[in-house]
Amino acid sequence: MAKQPSFEEQMSQLQQIVNELQQGNLSLEESLNEFKTGMELANSLQKQLQNAEATVAHLMKDDGKEVEDPTDSRNDDGSGHQGYRSQFSGQGFEDGQDDNVDLF
């Protein structure tokens, strides 16, 4: 059984695929095959990152500190966009400000 490439090796392979696709020198069939391989790599890398986040969260929890659930991809603003925080996050009902706004 072949050893799975390391995270870094997979990232390097994905970057190479992206570069090849951006150059535009591949045939349509080759481009589709490279794109498919790139998506498989990206999904594998995402799973590895999620596992690493879960491990860190577990270790932090064992240390007695509160941590966020790493499997929850939604932010506090509920946007569902991982890594994106609205400019309006933290404003509104929760911060005790008066949210009565006259629109007309």
From TrEMBL:
* Predominant place of localization: cytoplasm
Subcellular location(s): the record lists: Cytoplasm
Q: Report the domain of life of the source organism.
A: Bacteria
**Stretch list, region Disordered:** 58-104
Query: What are the Acidic residues biased-composition ranges?
Result: 95-104
* Keyword Iron belongs to the record: no
Point to the regions of Basic and acidic residues compositional bias. Answer: 59-79
Q: Name one GO molecular function term.
A: exodeoxyribonuclease VII activity
Q: Which UniProt keywords apply?
A: Cytoplasm, Exonuclease, Hydrolase, Nuclease
What EC number(s) does the entry state? 3.1.11.6
**Main role?**
Bidirectionally degrades single-stranded DNA into large acid-insoluble oligonucleotides, which are then degraded further into small acid-soluble oligonucleotides.
Q: Which NCBIfam families match?
A: PRK00977.1-2, xseB
Name recorded for this polypeptide: Exodeoxyribonuclease 7 small subunit
Biological source species: Limosilactobacillus allomucosae
Gene that specifies this protein: xseB
